[in-house]
Amino acid sequence: MTLEDCLPPDLRGPTTTVTRIAAGLSGAGVYRVEAAGKAFVLKVAGESENPADWRRGFHIQRLAADAGLAPRIVHVDEARRAVLTAFVADRSFLASYANPSTHEAALAQLGRTVRRLHELPLPADLHPLHPREFLAQTWSALQPGFTLPDFARDAIQRVLEEEPPADGRALVLSHNDINPTNLVYDGENILLLDWTTAGPNHPFYDLAVISVFLRMDEGTCRRLLAAHDGEPVNTLPARFAYFRRLVPVLCGSTLLNLARQMKHAGASGTETLASQPSLAEFYQRLQTGAVNLATADGQWAFGLALIKESFAR
Predict the structure, then answer these.
(1) 95: Cβ–Cβ under 8 A, 6 or more apart, which residues?
(2) How far apart are CA 216 and CA 214, in angstroms?
(3) Which of 11, 84, 145, 250 is the 20 to 30 A CA-CA neighbour of 31?
(4) Radius of gyration of the chain (CA)
């Protein structure tokens, strides 16, 4: 089988080009396709991805695409677990968010976009994501034969010991990985990419994830929640604050586990909370090319920066 076999017949031919863009954490391959004078994105599931999980994720992706929350689906090859979507030229949501003149409008649009996602019908056959249980599984995978800095171990154990505050909000259809790399802005709408981990979750989880990765302060978080809820938020809810502590540890430990799988040696014994770069400093190093996320060292550095961020929550 060639990658071109995953395309519809009218997009195959001698002028069609398929260029690899990236590989996801699940092992999926992502490719840019140029055909018939148009651009597309092809995502082919990795061999290790569970077929049932793929079908579930695709079902949610189609719901989101139909609602204008994900790029338009052009073609699907279920046998090969391949999805072709329209290519969306990214106008950079981050640039709009970082610009003082457009910051508030971008923040409000982000909150409303997440609310639109959470208003989609929740399929009855989906199992909820339990973030703390996922962290426990990741922690179990990390421990044998892989040394972590003391502050990272302390952060993981602290979150595992904390009980989520009670909250009466119902579960919603969540993306579960709204980080900046999964946002595309077409100039009018924010679209979400990579629906691999989507499923039922508390609505504050999605909001907490993006607030952590964008390093939002308390006031910005309140305005994000207000845009999502459609009413003023004067105090951060306890459940949202809890997720703000859990998310950087969960995402950071996931990256550390990925670094382990990429044969990283683990802690050298010199890593301390004070010596590790902050998340802001890591982003600066990433922008200058001083760190490469495609490497084990890059995943390790990102993971530690996220875990350090949890101590500020």
Answers:
(1) none
(2) 6
(3) 250
(4) 20
pTM exceeds cut of 0.90: yes
Fold of 93-310: Aminoglycoside 3'-phosphotransferase; Chain: A, domain 2 (3.90.1200)
Residues of the chain with CATH 3.90.1200.10: 93-310
Contacts (Cβ under 8 Å, ≥6 apart) of 139 = 156, 160, 253
| CA nearest neighbour of 113 among 185, 218, 214 | 185
Yes or no: domain 3-86 corresponds to CATH 3.30.70.3280? no
| pLDDT tens, position by position, 273-299 | 999 999 999 999 999 999 999 899 999
Q: Which residue has the tokens 């390790």?
A: 300
Report how far Cα 185 is from the mean position of its chain's Cα atoms.
15
pLDDT 10s digits, 227-255: 999 999 999 999 999 999 999 999 999 99
